[in-house]
Amino acid sequence: MTKKNPDTHQSKKLKQRHKFFLNPYQDCAFTKCPKCETKTKIRKFPLVIKIEPKQLFLLNKQCKYCPICDLIIAKKQEIEPLITFEFSKSNPKIVDNQYLVMGTLDRKDWKDGNNKSLSSAEIIERIYLFKDVWNFKVIPAGWYDNDEK
Ligand SMILES: [Zn+2]
Question: Based on the number of CB atoms within 10 Å of its own CB, is 36 exposed (0-12), middle (13-18) or buried (19 or more)?
């Protein structure tokens, strides 16, 4: 056994799982995975969303999920109204800010976070970041007329 890297901060090692795609297309539900064409399932995931500058938002969201690719697909148009709804009273100035879906929590941690028994720092410690964030372009045939006049 070699004694390597005594200085690395093992405790700060980030946990990762799942891949993520934020679906910007209102008319595309991705009933099939855009990568492998497997039929997607519907599953709830406890998502952690960071809204700039430093607001965390926990959202147990029904998403599309491809078990082959381990890919979560969430609809942008469904997430944004929920952010607006959540913060329009408590913190209205952040409602239109940039946001980032960072990762997921274990269900137990999501519950604690939602009860406010976890601080933001504790949530960040427990978060599973996405392994990867994918993007897919959809070019629907016959739609060009509307956009390219
Ligand atoms: Zn797939």
Answer: exposed
Q: Which tens digits make up the pLDDT trace of 97-110?
A: 999 999 999 999 99
What are the residue ranges spanned by the domains of the chain?
14-135
The CA 19 to ligand 1 mean position distance, Å, reads 10
Burial pattern 86-113, b for ≥16 Cβ within 10 A else e, equals bbeeeeeebeeeebebbbbbeeebbebb
The pairing of strands 128-129 and 99-104 is antiparallel
39 Cα: distance to centroid of ligand 1 (angstroms): 8
What is the C-alpha separation between 117 and 123, in angstroms, rounded? 10
